[in-house]
Design goal:
With about 525 residues, the protein is α/β, with parallel strands linked by helices. About 45% of the residues lie in helices and about 15% in strands. The chain has 19 helices and 20 strands. The strands form five sheets. Strands 10, 11, 13, 14, 15, 16 and 17 form a seven-stranded mixed sheet that branches. It has a four-stranded mixed sheet with strand order 3-4-2-12. A four-stranded mixed sheet has the order 9-8-20-19. The chain is globular.
């Protein structure tokens, strides 16, 4: 665990304690290890029906691998029926191919204490991914810039409950499309020491990601270890485009992880029914994971499920709904039956502001992820407006609430200390526990403590400006950025990364398409 602290003030115990409370303390909690059961909504009969129907989709309807002759040839050699760009996969073949994918893997960070294990009963939390817009209290809603991107990376680095730096936390539109991945990777590698994600917007950008990691970690280390996770979306329904599959091919060949994730808005890209959507999700994931194993057996992958429903009046996606929760729970069961790590859920909401709607929908979405057995939660903080906006204030609101997930995941201890029988005997009928020995020994760690929300008496709250949560969050954003300290990185590595980026940028003209 890395800590950056100011020098502790000298003097009496009170002064020392005050100095400790005001010191800069950068701490990252270990990834979540669940001690609570997964919430399962499908019985054995329902699971078997969905699995059988998914095999029917693959065998009879098929999936499209577009503009990718090499992929078609791989499938043909594996025993699939290929007609034009349609691939029909015999029953059982995709599942057999998926069996070589690991059930869990370690993604290494440059700070080894912040490496994460993805799979099993673990959950890794990563920030929002992909919005072209940002919003904050000062500038309102606007197109994202590289400066915004760097601020989000710094906030993620300083957030205790976030285990991962993420990927495209916002889309820096002031940098050419063909070059911005270099700046984004540079930010993750130099401004943070947490794990991060690679680029997937073109196969050559995925290759750049691998080569930059070879500079950061060393070629041999990258060859033998997983240092990146990437997001490979499927164009639902049942279409695998050459851009995403090209990136997947690069990462699989280099033993780097990919999240194979259908992108589904129910009623538009999948059936309106929960069971029908789960069937399509499973078919698409089976085909995508199987393809990764055709490229390289044993390549690390994650079963992804990004699902929202649709507002039938406006056509806009909706979040925090019961249907999305049921699909998330069911997909978790299907992922575990495949023995694969599972990605889903996040701080999803459709609100335009970090208001009550955002809070309700986000709370529903975060809690369903914990209970569904999610192993990798992308979008765990900062999501607004259906994913179009990364919001600075909501980022720190959500990041604070991620501590609740850590607390819930611990479950209920029943050891001697937790039973508290000595305390009950000491206090007896009619007393109070504030001063008893058990309380004094445990009060610092007994309860989760928010670093954002206000629990002061009304009079104190009013004297301090009657600030609402949005104002408190805005102050916290400013405080975190003001106290940010860049993690150490070898000067040789930093210079080599900068030289690589400069050379790559100089090798091609700017393109904003």
């Amino acid at each position: 665990m890395e800590e950056v602290k100011t020098r502790r003030a000298r003097g009496g115990g009170g002064a020392a304690r005050r100095a400790e409370r005001t010191a800069v303390n950068i701490e990252t909690a270990k990834y979540i290890e669940r001690n609570i059961p997964n919430f399962e909504v499908l019985n054995e009969e329902a699971l078997e029906i969905i699995e059988a129907n998914a095999e029917t989709i693959l065998a009879e309807i098929g999936v499209n691998f577009v503009n990718n002759p090499a992929a078609l040839e791989r499938w043909r050699a594996a025993g699939a029926e290929v007609e034009d760009e349609r691939v029909r996969i015999p029953r059982g073949l995709a599942r057999k191919l998926c069996s070589t994918a690991p059930s869990q893997f370690t993604q290494h960070a440059r700070n080894s204490e912040k490496s994460v294990v993805i799979g099993g009963r673990n959950m890794v939390l990563a920030p929002v991914y992909g919005p072209p817009f940002v919003r904050d209290a000062q500038g309102g809603r606007r197109y994202a810039t590289m400066a915004d991107f760097e601020k989000f990376v710094k906030l993620a680095y300083m957030s205790k409950w976030l285990h991962h730096s993420g990927g495209t936390v916002c889309e820096p539109t002031d940098i050419p499309v063909n070059k911005r991945h270099l700046d984004m990777l540079m930010a993750h590698m130099t401004l943070s020491d947490k794990p991060f994600m690679g680029s997937v917007t073109a196969p050559e950008r995925a290759q750049d990601s691998v080569e930059m990691c070879e500079i950061l970690f060393g070629k041999e280390f990258v060859r033998d270890n997983t240092v990146m996770t990437s997001l490979v979306n499927i164009n639902s329904p049942m279409t695998f485009d050459d851009i995403m599959m090209g990136a997947l091919e690069v990462y699989a060949a280099n033993n780097q992880a990919a999240i194979i994730s259908p992108f589904i808005v129910g009623g538009a890209m999948a059936p309106v029914s929960v069971a029908g959507t789960l069937t399509q999700v499973l078919a698409e994931v089976l085909a995508g994971v199987a393809y990764s194993q055709l490229v390289r057996p044993g390549a690390p992958v994650i079963f992804g499920a990004f699902v929202s429903s649709i507002d039938m009046n406006s056509g806009a996606p909706t979040f925090g709904t019961p249907e999305a929760s049921l699909i998330t729970y069911g997909a978790g069961q299907l992922a575990r039956r495949l023995n694969l790590p599972y990605r889903s859920a996040g701080s999803f909401c459709g609100s335009k502001l970090p208001d009550a709607q955002a809070a309700y929908e986000t709370a529903n979405s975060l809690n369903m992820g914990l209970l569904a057995g999610v192993n990798f939660m992308l979008h765990s903080c900062g999501w607004l407006e259906g994913g179009l906006v990364a919001d600075f204030e909501k980022f720190v609101m959500d990041a604070d609430q991620l501590g609740v997930l850590h607390g819930l995941a611990k479950g209920i201890a029943v050891d001697t200390n937790a039973q508290a029988m000595d305390a009950i005997r000491e206090v007896g009928p009619g007393g109070h526990y504030l001063g008893c020995a058990h309380t004094q020994a445990n009060f610092k760690s007994a309860f989760w403590k928010s670093e954002l929300l206000d629990y002061k008496p009304f009079e104190t709250w009013e004297e301090e400006g009657a600030r609402d949560t949005y104002a408190l969050a805005s102050n916290r954003v400013e405080k975190l950025l003001a106290t940010y300290r860049q993690p150490e990185l070898s000067q040789d590595v930093a210079e080599a990364l900068a030289a690589y980026v400069a050379e790559k940028k100089a090798s091609m003209p700017d393109s904003f398409m």
